[in-house]
Amino acid sequence: MLLSSRVKGLSDSITMKLNERALGLTDEGKVIYNLSGGQLPIKPLPEFVEKIHHQLNFLKSYQYSPVAGFSNLRKKLTRHMVEVRHLPSDIFENDFDCIISNGSKHSIYNALGALIDPGDEVILLAPYWVSYPEMIKFWGGTSNVVRSNVFDAFVPAIEDMRKAMSPRTKAIILNSPNNPAGVHYSEAWMREFAIFLKENPDLIVISDEVYSDITYFDPKPSYFYQFDHTLLERTIIVHAISKTLASTGLRLGYSIAPSAIISAMGKIQGQTTSGPNSLIQRALMDFDLKFLDTFLEPVKFHVRQNAATLREKFRKANLGHCWYQSTSAFYFMIDFSRTPMFSRFESDKDHSYTVADELLQNEGITVVPGTDFGLPNSARIALVIEEVPFQEAISKIVRYLNHV
Ligand code: PLP
């Protein structure tokens, strides 16, 4: 009764709840295969950790940073983006800015706050990251969902976006590489997306690129604005160190966008959280980003191997129709709606929660139900656990899917 209707409308994070249940079962002595994780199970680069140690010695590391973050770091991150996306060196020199926030979730939240009026629509491409609809709702907007399916490797059709446009559509969130599908959209797709944006000159894009460094299948991700630089005038590029530097707990994300949008995001940030973590910003300022090139190599190799295990096990178990080539991030979506075990269920309803529950209770495996990603009758698994337990977990999943 005491709570605001705004907060009552929000959902809890399902991943957190599942983790708690899995921890409870582990305490009871059960072997649990945790495939629900959203982070890399490794420590960041020693060179980065060293920089954090070093910065512990300075008073400034413990004091407020400017609201938008230290300007040197904002410039450094902007330069880095220009380099890795092969943009003209002066592209962000005028009328663009960068703001550092407490993780990219915070960046996206602020960006939506800067853009959305109650009643505005935001196009989401399903499967989408669970937090987008909740954040849109929080700011009074509504999600307009464009769906994709396993047969298209979860790549949405641009034509469906054209159909989804309405007079209230304000923005679209693009997330390539995608969580939860574990794929990135091709260059041809991005070129077509750029055309679609040209047809819709008022549409703003939030380009969530937090997984852009984790790709294990060529060609590497490309982005629509690389093919038409004028599109940057209505794009908010979002990135973070969470996945790139295996530092989810250090909470540092950033956005590059036209100055007017960054300034509005800064107003929200200034009146809510203030500037981001000074210590981590200073360590990052000191850190040579070229180390990133090699840091993720072993991770990518490992994820690629687990993805190959998945393909083999699905193929041998006649589940080839549930398989697609994942290419990036570290997730895979299992669409179980065409597997033998699904005959137990009413086909016109979503049973993702029941299946996640059965997998945990019967097989000791945690997965994330597809419901919250906007993909009914599916489950997200992470491809990051060690090879042998991963093989065991997939054998159990395959047996479960084929059991009537
Ligand atoms: N965007 C996507 C697609 C994610 O999967 C996540 C985290 O899992 C985030 C943004 C937020 O990451 P962070 O707030 O840790 O930077």
CA radius of gyration is 21 Å
Largest sheet: spatial strand order: 2-8-7-6-5-3-4
Helix content range of the residues, please? 25-40%
Number of domains: 2
Q: Ions, cofactors, ligands: which are bound?
A: pyridoxal-5'-phosphate
Question: Can you count the helices?
Answer: 14
Distance between the termini: 45 Å
Which structural class is indicated by helix and strand composition?
A: alpha/beta
In N-to-C order, the SSE pattern is HHEHHEHEHEHEHEEEHHHHEHEEEH
Strand content: 5-15%
- On the 0-100 scale, what is the average pLDDT? 95
Runs in which pLDDT lies below 50 for 5 or more consecutive residues are none
Based on the structure given, which CATH architecture of the largest domain is correct? 3-Layer(aba) Sandwich
Overall, the morphology is globular
CATH class of the largest domain: Alpha Beta
At the fold tier of CATH, the topology name of the largest domain is: Aspartate Aminotransferase, domain 2
